Amino acid sequence: MTKKPKPLSTIQVNGPVPADQARSIIESSLREAILDGRLPSGTALRQQELADLFGVSRMPVREALRQLEAQSLLNVVQHKGAVVAPLITNNAVETYALRAVLEAFALRLSIPLLDDDDFALAAQYIEQLEVQTQHAEIAKLNRLFHMSLYHKAPNGKLLDLIEHELNEEERFLRFHLSSMGLGKLTQDDHRAILAAAIARDIDKAVALLEQHLEKASITMRRYLEQPSKA
What we know:
Elements: H1 22-35, E1 44-45, H2 47-54, H3 58-70, E2 74-77, E3 81-84, H4 92-110, H5 116-131, H6 135-150, H7 156-176, H8 188-198, H9 202-225
């Protein structure tokens, strides 16, 4: 029987890792591997193995793991240490309800402060989403589009909370876009939200955003109802 390759073998390290960049390089490499499924849920990440892989001490590894835990990508489990977190948890629907409240509030605050450059950037993300076929890039562009409309909300804590939740959605989209039966994400909702924002029709933009998030919530509920979830 052929042995399955160890998950860490999917991570390539190109040359020596500079000491002053070790933490960020390790964090970025592990984050990408978690998001695209190379490090599946339940994978234990042991500090010494990672230190050996990247050719560094355990200190930057420990710091990188702490950052990933703060991003909800890792859980610390007794006797196992850092473990890749589940793709999505059973409170996902509640999370989407919270997102609708937070993002609607951010959009209300941000629209009056957005300018032509902001609208042009949002439109650019939509155009890229129309032609992009790589699931990783689609999920990333989806997050960037939303943040381009929220980012001028004068409430840093609010934006931090939203970005955290968008990062979790990015992970879900990257790994399950194809299994949801979506070759790509339709941009009709995004275009309508942007058009309302450009027109400074705040109530319409918020209503469209809430409808958009409700569609995503339905997709999430369907996923959670499946007998077996990866």
